[in-house]
Write a structure and sequence with these properties.
The protein has 363 residues and is an alpha/beta fold. The protein contains 14 helices and 13 strands. It is globular and about 65 Å long.
């Protein structure tokens, strides 16, 4: 692979045009974004990668919004790939499921009509059953444990597992921890959930979690959720802080519990057809860019989570923070979920993650 020293990157022209357009609309947009500050996108370093003389277009689609941490990570990925390929790879970003939801985007990768996507692992469980480990409750006690698992031997093995069926998996990013909100009660012990109607994804482990806790889990489309909460069809829901705020759930939910009950990553996927068209140098460039994107995106995600949680409290939401002892009570109550799913998810995988968690706690 031939490389040359890369000159410092300039602000991408297409992004400059977007910024100018936003300013032309007046100061309102700037004011609206001012309360939640994202970490600055890092400058691009490294060397220019020489390709094969061909130009490539890379469409990268995600389901989350343009204002979120995931899209911010994609912007960094775009900067790296375009700068280090000297413009021979042009990256086009699509947010808010403009090209389809997670499963539709994955299907497009398999057919070769889309180059990249980064779905949550939950919708991929039917394709890769061991991804269900990310739906188990309280398995990742801290973000640091999640990082060690995803960036280590376990995560590398799972990337290999997902590099089948027309896909190439090249990295991890963060969807984050799910938190409980509801309109009825400040939930502290599991008993507070008795009979509470909680909207969940159509996911068998998630349904089992809330049934075991005594709640009444109600699978429902996310698009229907706000209205269902507003009309009292369901009492509560669970999502990361950023989703709770961006969806304005705090307008119809007085209570939240920082439960951190499920940690979900994003997995960065490339179409195998596109991957095989690229010279080896460009393949490695995508891997390097995905790694840097994942690290930066997690930083953004965690920064935003802290800010947004405080903003929700400032706006009047009653947020309960569980003590370690209270978390342990939830874990004990949910032990039957592990008994039920251990063989199907993979007992050895669960044990390895728990060992990583114990090692992290000891350090």
């Amino acid at each position: 692979m031939t490389t040359t020293t890369m000159m410092p990157s300039t602000y991408p022209l297409h992004r400059l045009k977007v910024a100018i357009s936003a300013l032309a609309l007046g100061g309102l947009a700037v004011t609206a974004q001012a309360s939640t500050d994202m970490p600055t996108i890092p400058s691009v370093d490294g060397t220019v990668v020489e390709g094969d003389g061909n130009d490539y277009t890379l469409k990268f689609s995600i389901g989350t919004t343009q204002s979120g941490a995931q899209y911010r990570g994609l912007e960094y990925f775009e900067d790296i790939v375009e700068a280090r390929s000297k413009g021979h790879i042009q990256v086009e970003l699509f947010h808010s499921a403009q090209l389809g939801d997670d499963l539709q985007a994955v299907s497009a990768l398999q057919s070769g009509t889309l180059e990249m996507t980064a779905p949550s692992t939950s919708p991929l469980v039917n394709m890769f059953p061991e991804f269900a480990v990310f739906d188990l409750p309280f398995l990742f006690p801290t973000p640091e444990v999640a990082d060690e698992v995803l960036d280590g031997e376990i995560g590398d093995h799972m990337l290999e597992t997902a590099s089948t069926n027309g896909l190439k998996a090249i990295g991890w990013a963060e969807n984050g921890y799910r938190q409980l909100t509801n309109s009825q009660i400040a939930v502290t012990p599991p008993e507070d959930l008795d009979g509470l109607k909680v909207r969940t994804m159509q996911n068998p482990i998630h349904l089992d979690i809330w049934k075991t806790l005594g709640a009444n889990p109600t699978p429902m489309s996310f698009a229907e959720l706000f209205t269902a909460l507003e009309q009292g069809v369901v009492d509560g829901q669970e999502n990361p802080w950023i989703t709770i705020q961006s969806s304005k759930f705090n307008e119809v939910q007085d209570y939240a519990t920082e439960s951190n009950h499920v940690y979900t990553p994003f997995i960065t996927l490339v179409s195998e057809r596109f991957w095989n068209e690229l010279p080896a140098g460009y393949q490695q460039l995508l891997v390097d860019a995905a790694e840097k994107m994942g690290s930066y995106q997690r930083h953004v995600s965690r920064t935003l989570n802290d800010q947004i949680k405080q903003e929700l409290m400032d706006e009047g939401m009653n947020i309960t923070e569980l003590t370690p002892k209270q978390v342990a009570t939830f874990q004990e109550t949910l032990s039957p979920v592990y008994d039920e799913w251990r063989d199907e998810v993979g007992g050895e995988l669960i044990d390895k993650i728990r060992a990583t968690s114990r090692q992290g706690s000891a350090e």
